[in-house]
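thought: user wants a sequence for this fold. calling inverse folding tool.
action: design(structure=
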């Protein structure tokens, strides 16, 4: 009860903080809101801070900074979508990506010394001031005692407790949303919060981030231009992560990126390819691809940092996703619709033909168009209307994928108005489809079935033994012979027959497979 009251208080504090910064129904957008929202906005501005920032995005950014790291993550996603929220609003939110207030370097030093139980000077001959600060950690440039230039990431003090409080508050908010607004259940707010909460908690252990970086580096080999810094395992721990230092231009400085002479159209295509290739071919992807985590070298190489949030897809999910994308790319809306139904994303009570027609209505107006020609806010609204029309529930296992697709496509739009998501997506999707649904895939699936069958054969002796025990129990206690034509006799014979048939079939399959 006390915990619930505390979380209600935190929700009220969040509302108060947003109102104080005029970040709830801001004045600049009054005409776009319905009457109830306009009235609430006018009331909220009665308590707003005087002399607040002119940019509504900056006001929201400052409010989110005060509310904590979990809220900042939400703002980072919005910051990549200038096409949805407007360029001015997005510029105001951009400060959340890597320009947050750093904490004292002395605290960072103490954290390092506590983690490794030795002085900072024993690990680094130089340890500079923070060069970037985000919601969960900040980064320092340093030089190791053996002369390597590295980036040292250190968690913020007390960030663990703040995130856990935020998660509890979000859970209560989701529960209230489902109770007060039953229509929201379709969006699975509770499942969404749990997915986000899990990713946030994992970010608090930098050893897991190091492992994710190593895993993603192996997957990145399949992409045409995607690079990750090497992990310094000896100087990494739960609260400290040390990696190779990358001399590259941050994508938060888009003017500098464009002035460097790098082919930004190709770079946008490379980013799309990197995301889809790792996700589809290896089942793992960087799930926080905002501009603050992306860099480009003067040689055009695309670099990613910050691997705290990693997304993973199972084999079936990857096949469904590829089939859906392939259907869109080649205007085969029936195939895309069928993949939705096979995956269970659309309830079976609806018509596949109707759903295919709805997909066509969304895709055709934007097919083959560049970023500058596609009003993504309108597309997102259409997609939301379709999910409502066909009673589609949010898929918790795809939350990170959907969020990252929005982020990556937003960065691509910042890079170039000429970015064509259709052309950029096609190579990786086609490559995956050939591999997963062609002759090679059928052979691989058959071999997988043989492996499972072999496991079943190895387990048969134990299974037959259990069958014999069951049969003896049915036949009667020892010393009392049950009639072999009775129930016990038939069970015994039936079980023995099933066992022999299974063994024979399995042996035949294995022989065929070996041949």
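)
observation: tool returned 515 residues.
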């Amino acid at each position: 009860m006390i915990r619930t009251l505390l979380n209600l208080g935190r929700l009220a504090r969040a509302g108060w903080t947003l109102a104080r910064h005029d970040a709830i129904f801001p004045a600049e957008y009054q005409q776009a809101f319905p009457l109830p929202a306009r009235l609430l906005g006018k009331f909220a501005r009665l308590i707003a801070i005087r002399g607040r920032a002119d940019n509504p995005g900056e006001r929201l950014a400052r409010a989110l900074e005060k509310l904590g790291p979990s809220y900042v993550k939400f703002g980072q996603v919005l910051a990549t979508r200038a096409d949805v929220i407007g360029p001015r609003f997005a510029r105001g939110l951009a400060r959340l990506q890597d320009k947050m207030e750093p904490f004292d370097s002395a605290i960072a030093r103490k954290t390092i010394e506590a983690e490794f139980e030795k002085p900072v000077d024993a690990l680094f001959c130089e340890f500079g001031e923070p060069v970037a600060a985000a919601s969960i950690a900040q980064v320092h440039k340093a030089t190791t005692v053996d002369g390597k230039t590295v980036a040292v990431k250190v968690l913020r003090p007390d960030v663990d407790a703040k995130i856990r409080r935020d998660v509890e508050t979000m859970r209560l908010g989701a529960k209230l949303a489902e109770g007060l607004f039953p229509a929201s259940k379709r969006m699975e707010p509770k499942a969404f919060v749990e997915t986000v909460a899990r990713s946030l908690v994992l970010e608090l252990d930098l050893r897991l981030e190091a492992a994710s970086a190593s895993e993603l580096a192996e997957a990145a080999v399949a992409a045409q231009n995607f690079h990750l810094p090497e992990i310094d395992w000896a100087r990494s721990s739960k609260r400290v992560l040390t990696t190779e230092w990358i001399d590259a231009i941050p994508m938060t400085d888009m003017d500098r990126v464009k002035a460097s002479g790098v082919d930004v159209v190709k770079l946008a295509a490379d980013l799309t390819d990197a995301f889809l290739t790792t996700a589809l071919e290896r089942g793992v992807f960087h799930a926080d691809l905002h501009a603050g985590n992306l860099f480009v070298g003067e040689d055009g190489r695309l670099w990613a940092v910050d691997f705290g949030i990693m997304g993973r897809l199972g084999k079936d999910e990857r096949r469904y996703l590829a089939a859906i994308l392939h259907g869109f790319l080649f205007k085969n809306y029936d195939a895309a619709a069928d993949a939705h139904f096979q995956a269970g994303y659309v309830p079976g009570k609806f018509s596949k033909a109707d759903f295919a027609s709805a997909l066509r209505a969304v895709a055709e107006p934007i097919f083959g168009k560049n970023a500058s020609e596609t009003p993504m806010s309108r597309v997102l609204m259409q997609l939301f209307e379709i999910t409502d029309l066909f009673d589609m529930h949010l898929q918790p296992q795809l939350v990170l994928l959907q969020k990252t697709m929005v982020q990556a496509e937003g960065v691509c739009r910042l890079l170039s108005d000429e970015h064509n998501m259709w052309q950029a997506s096609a190579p990786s999707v086609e490559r995956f489809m050939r591999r997963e649904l062609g002759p090679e895939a059928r052979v691989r699936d058959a071999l997988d079935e043989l492996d499972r069958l072999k496991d079943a054969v190895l387990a048969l002796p134990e299974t037959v033994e259990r069958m014999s025990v069951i049969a003896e129990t049915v036949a009667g206690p020892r010393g009392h012979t049950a009639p072999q034509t009775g129930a016990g006799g038939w069970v015994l014979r039936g079980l023995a027959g099933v066992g022999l048939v299974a063994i024979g079939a399995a042996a035949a399959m294995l022989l065929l497979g070996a041949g």
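thought: summarizing for user.
answer: Here is the designed sequence. Confidence is low (pLDDT under 50) at residues 481-485, 490-515.
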